Amino acid sequence: MMIRFSKSLAGVSLAALMMVASPSPALADDPVGDRSAQAEAAAFEADRADILAMAGDFRVSFDMKETTPWRADYEPIDAKVSGGFESVRVIEDTGRKIVLQHLLVVGSEDNPFIVKHWRQDWEYEPEQILVYNAPGRWVLDDVPEAMRKGRWSQTVYQVDDSPRYAGWGQWETTNGVRRWRSNWTIRPLARRDATRDPVYDHYVSINRHQPFPGGWIHWQDNTKSKWVDGEAVPYVQESVLNTYTRYDDYPVSAADEYWEATSQYWAAVRAEWEASLSKTGGIVIEEEASTGTVISGDLLQMGTDIAKGEMDTNAAIAKAQTLIREGTGATRTAASTEQGSDAGY
Q1: How far apart are alpha carbons 171 and 182 in whole angstroms?
Q2: pLDDT per residue over 185-226, tens digit each?
Q3: Please, are residues 210 and 223 in contact by the beta-carbon 8 Å criterion?
Q4: Is 267 exposed, middle or buried (0-12, 13-18, 19+ CB in 10 A)?
Q5: In angstroms, how far is the first alpha carbon of the chain from the final one?
Q6: Model's pTM, two decimal places?
Q7: By C-alpha distance, which of 205, 109, 103 is closest to 154?
Q8: Percentages helix, strand, coil for the chain, rounded to the nearest 5?
Q9: Residue 249 carries which DSSP code?
Q10: Cα–Cα distance, 175 to 232 (Å, whole number)
Q11: Which residue of 20, 42, 73, 162 has the fewest C-beta atoms within 10 A of its own C-beta?
């Protein structure tokens, strides 16, 4: 998740200027050259197959390690390895856009609990992406025109469907291995870091997604940095390798039952975030270390209550719409429930 900033919206604007003034992120790979319509169509279908192959049921390992310190006064923290079970479902596929919803299954075999986890949206040849710009702020950013052809953007959303980060890149085969690699992206701190109140306050990262026999990996190369006088000062390099191995010997049905019960509610939540984005061309909302945004706890809890039959879907939708409208406006509403994972997607 992300770190909480108590500063007002006016205070956020200074950090925004810092990021805007920073050097542009490096591009991912080279522009796609001319190719026949047949080759273009074949590449498009191969890309789609790789994205859709990330759906299914998985045993997941989260392997996070700070490696190289970039300052003499910084000592890397201990490596952390954790794991769990995750069901990934395709909730939208229009051809040029694919949306994958992750559902984390925790608890016991007899008493499973579902955490609506992260979401990844893939879009073919996008003109813009929604990028992290400053604490509590995401803005639409143009994809360079020369770098749109043949490429896909990936936008990652948090557990409450608020944005987290976005990047664009090309699916290709390198040394016999398929992979998608993003451009350099700026992203907020993950929960595992934010709750420790570390010296750094954001990541500058490259994302990779690669299929392998029996699953896929999500590999992150993170430079943990801090904004100082308008410059991003690097503190330490981190390698994150999340491995998704196909596996279904866990309560998969619990994930599907949760999604069947709550999909209407979460569709309305996504629509409300989109409405907020359309009004202003960005999203501004206060961040909170344990949950991501200050309204995340309430939004997640209502999903759980719907799944348990303890809350009416329409009533939850109405409350969620109010929370998002107030949270992204001049008045911000705090949430109290803490749910989520430290996986660092």
Answers
A1: 10
A2: 999 999 889 999 999 999 999 999 999 999 999 999 999 999
A3: no
A4: middle
A5: 9
A6: 0.88
A7: 205
A8: 25, 40, 35
A9: -
A10: 33
A11: 73
